[in-house]
Amino acid sequence: MGNFRNRNRNNPAISTASLPDIVFMLLFFFMTVTTIKNEELLVENSLPMANETEKLSKKDRVIEIFVGKVKNSKVDYFQIQMGTQIVNIDELNHAALIALSEIPEELHKVAIVSLKADKKVNMGLINDIKEQLREINLLKINYTVVDGNVF
After folding, report:
1. DSSP letter, residue 142
2. Is 109 helix (H, G, I), strand (E, B) or coil?
3. Which of 3, 48, 59, 150 is least surrounded, with the fewest CB atoms within 10 Å of its CB?
4. Is residue 37 part of a domain?
5. Pfam families from the xrefs (predicted)?
6. 88-to-55, 92, 105, 109 alpha-carbon distances in Å
7. Is 108 in contact with 61 (CB distance < 8 Å)?
8. How many CB atoms neighbour CB 77 within 10 A?
């Protein structure tokens, strides 16, 4: 019974000697796992606004296509950018197949094309892009917009 009445003992101090090791281990883990997107935007595009939007939840299956005017150029027509290069409408299939080959093969059937087009692009060019993507069976297209009031 004497052991239970001795409540005046101090608790031992918690050792923090391994804390820096744990912090550096976590830092090293996040440095190796994190990827940085190095894609430079070659075209200017101001995205249109929309009232009701949804975010894409799985970004590992997204192929991005940018449509806009070339930055710092006197060219007055809209260009298509895939990856780090400007492509013509005739080269879009080839560039899209290259982008499709960069995602895992099990995600090919659920791949989504994210079309980030300037709000002043005419629908004829958008329709041409959709026809080219239809030829290589990329049928899921997402139009990227800015969340805001249209009116």
Report:
1. E
2. helix
3. 3
4. no
5. ExbD (PF02472)
6. 29, 6, 26, 25
7. no
8. 8
Structure tokens given for 98:
């290259």
Q: Is residue 17 part of a domain?
A: no
Range of the domain at 64: 43-147
* Buried/exposed code over 41-59 (b: 16+ C-beta within 10 A; e: otherwise): ebbebebbeeeeeeeeeee
> Could you tell me if 107 and 63 are in contact, meaning their C-beta atoms sit under 8 angstroms apart?
no
**8-state DSSP, 3:** T
What CATH number should be reported for the domain holding residue 77? 3.30.420.270
Measured from the Cβ of residue 79, the count of other Cβ atoms closer than 10 Å reads: 19
Question: What's the pTM value of the predicted model, to 2 decimals?
Answer: 0.72
pLDDT tens-place string over residues 62-103: 999 999 998 888 878 899 999 888 999 999 999 999 999 999
- Nearest CA among 145, 68, 130, 140 for reference residue 108: 140
Mean pLDDT throughout 105-118?
A: 92
Number of domains in the chain: 1
Owner of token pair 């080219």? 132
